[in-house]
Amino acid sequence: MSYTDIKDVSKSRVAESAQQTVAEEILARASGRNRVNPGEHVVAEVDAMMMHDIFAADVLSMLQRTGIRRLNNPSKATVVFDHMVPSPSVSSSSHQAKARELIRYYGIDAFFEIGTGICHQVMVEENRVSPGQLVVGTDSHTTTYGALGVASTGIGSTEMAYALATGKLWFRVPESIAIVLEGEFQFGVTAKDLILKLMKVIGSSEAQYCSVEFGGPSVGNLDLADRMTVANMGVEMGAKFTIFPQGPLTTLKRDARYIASHVVSLDKLVPQIAVPHHVENVVDVNEVVGVPLDQVFIGSCTNGRLGDLRLAADVLRGKHIAKGIRLIVTPASANVMAAAAREGIIEDLVKAGAYVGGPGCGPCFGGHMGLLAPGERCLGTHNRNFRGRMGSGDAEIYLGSPLTAAASALAGAIADPREILDGLGSVHTGTTMSSSGG
Amino acid sequence: MAMNDNVTKILGRAWLFGPDISTDMLSPGQYVHHPPEERLKHVLESARPEFASQVRPGEIVVGGPNFGCGSSRESAPQHLKDLGVAAVVADSFARIFARNAIAIGLVAIACPTLSEVVEDGDIIEVDVIAGRVSILDRNITLDADSIPEPMMDVLRLGGIEPMLALIGAEQAQDK
Predict the structure, then answer these.
(1) Hey, what domains does chain B have and what are their CATH numbers?
(2) What is the model's pLDDT at position A389?
């Protein structure tokens, strides 16, 4: 795997006339300025705000408590119930009931009930975000909309209350890092492997507070779903935004002031696994092949889209998962689930022994559904493997692609999907395999 | 509006934690809808099981790089504040955690090498305005990042909620 730092331009050397990065352009526009500079703080108008069921009641209750009678612009707000769905406890139900009452009170029409899907998937499916916007959400994976050229980032509930009340929020203008993609994905390698590899190369400190912006000749090899997978996990690098610029996609702004660039050759990428207990602990799959598993999870806002389920079904069709292993699958949205049902994917997965749940976050965030016991080991397609993320702090979480997850469910242990796929004649190959379209 | 002067200079005992303290450790997901007092018992239990029961008001949490990484859950800094923690000082912060801490009125200040120098239980002084952290018994003083003035205003007011109350009062007069 060769990654080359092709340049490392320090800020001081960048001329004032330099082109702005996408993040700078968007923050300048939103704060009514011609240009902004990394490191300065601006107050910017926010174009869209997203909340989910964990925080909606907290946000709206704070507005009520502080005497805010009306939102700055209710049409900019979206609420999606996706985490504790269907509600697993009376306390959770009460929390959701409170949120529903306040959603009505504040006139938020864009409210998507349980079963619609994971918030980030729903925001894209329902056109609640558009290229060039500045968007905040009460979820760290709000970076996902960067797949559409949006500068989007996670905030807490108190700041969300302020943004809803005033329409504005302060932002530090981030430094920007360029990721240049070259080459083509090889057989059995997906966008998930790309972002995991980037986690290893960039880690969780270099991109802290930065805007990570993608370009290069191969960026077109990533479809929207692939870009969502990559942008979703940008926050694991500490990034404020992860942006795939719109328009001519093959070149990043040549003269823009990126503080660093990384060139990634997709040709050389092999399946990647994040091992416990941090997302930057990434190894090539061959280093962990054979590690026994108790549970496999396919789903989440990272990898629960139609293309992901399709890849899993390609691996599992006509087979059965290993004895002693549990496979949990949660589609990212109702639309994904319906399409997967139409294609026969749901039937393939169920017959192979999967528990297929309804659309939502599933076990990814450790709230309910599929929590791990002490000493148990899970491989998932989601985005975090922190200690305690999916239940017991003494459980182990590994992260990989949907192909790796499905192959591992068949084997009962971490498996290299390329070896399993070699034995199957009928699955997609080449670039189709890399695409998780849907 | 009452101004809070306890956010400019803080003296207290240090609780030392390692790198990458995550929001899942600060506020484990499985207790997210448990009653508040129950949730506080589990704060940082996977890192230091004795922390939640032994931390005393006014003490200071010291972390390594990337403190507060993970989700946007505001309960992460809020739990520390509710346990009486007066400030969090870390080599570096995950951005959402740092924003959330200020938003709820908890001092969060980066001091790049502190976690390598400080020992658990040291008495440290955090001078937020000067951007300095001192380990008193050992005459060590380190430079810390300063907090931009707009955020200092938020801290002095005790967080964003009191600011919203001012806006709410204005809206009430408009009616």
Answers:
(1) 7-174 (3.20.19.10)
(2) 87
